[in-house]
Amino acid sequence: EAWRPDGEDGRRGAGGPVKVRVPAKVNLHLGVGPLRRDGYHELNTVYHAISIYDELTARPGDTLTLTMEGEGAGELALDDSNLVIRAAHALAGYAGVLPHARLHLRKQIPLAGGLAGGSADAAATLVACDALWGTRLSREELAGIAADLGSDVPFLIHGGTALGTGRGEAVSPVLARPTSWHWVVGIADGGLSTPAAYRELDRLREAGTAGPPLGSTDALLAALRQRDPRVLAAALGNDLQDAALAMRPALADTLKAGEAAGALAGIVSGSGPTCVFLAADEAHARGLARDLTAAGVCREVRVAHGPVAGARIV
Ligand code: ATP
């Protein structure tokens, strides 16, 4: 449960660098309910952290600076609009300390990919700066700041497999037998805007052309309790998938290619455009990744497993 490693008192980094690793998420079930008065949709989701990671290093500094490498470098603004900078300011403001740090982000999670990379970076920043500055907030306090930064941020501190309700920010762990699930992740060229995907879903629903809403997570939770990936495959679902397909019709080819390659199931991850495919085991995932790469429908294909821990000092 601790986000600090065993024996970690939270003061590591009082002088030295603090390095935090944070995973990407997929939604095994993404049930989108009605639009709320605050502009968010009521969600009923099962989050699952997978082994694609960003890494944030925090060092002492005289001001707050951010540099980055990897996915999105050169595209992503490093100013106050960046979720890393926003997270550092939010923590410093809450704890009453100066937001001084030299932050460096190594990004492997694609931008606007439906894998919550920005939220992951915000979660990593909270954990790293909490250690660097010795603010030592409780897990609940961090989760509160996280929720203000974005609906997915509390889960990315948490990790594992968890139920998300409200606008996704209310997270409770899913108790399941320790099982690793094996995934193939098909990354597309370019991103999709999450707000645009929700707007498209609203439009499809108004026009009466959206599929029926997924509703309860019961079937998915029951499937997780079994160890059979075929059972899990049948329970995966995403209410945003039709919207993502409407905005990016080529994703249908990606899903088809995964199916043709023998995936147990394929779904759009979150708001897309990343597609994830469930494999029977690790060897099956490797074979599937090879075939999906050969099909030429993705910018990049990676294998991953889950669940993995949330933002952790390494
Ligand atoms: P989600 O699944 O949570 O909707 P996503 O994976 O589709 O997110 P992200 O990469 O998390 O998309 O971010 C979406 C947008 O957030 C980016 O296009 C960018 O404008 C902004 N952003 C701000 N800070 C970051 C960051 N550190 N990393 C990625 N995106 C960021």
UniProtKB/TrEMBL annotation:
Keywords attached to this entry: ATP-binding, Isoprene biosynthesis, Kinase, Nucleotide-binding, Transferase
Reactions catalysed: 4-CDP-2-C-methyl-D-erythritol + ATP = 4-CDP-2-C-methyl-D-erythritol 2-phosphate + ADP + H(+)
Domain GHMP kinase C-terminal positions: 220-296
EC number: 2.7.1.148
Membrane spanning residue stretches: none
PANTHER family recorded: 4-DIPHOSPHOCYTIDYL-2-C-METHYL-D-ERYTHRITOL KINASE, CHLOROPLASTIC (PTHR43527:SF2)
Similarity remark: Belongs to the GHMP kinase family. IspE subfamily.
The protein, known as: 4-diphosphocytidyl-2-C-methyl-D-erythritol kinase
Organism: Micromonospora globbae
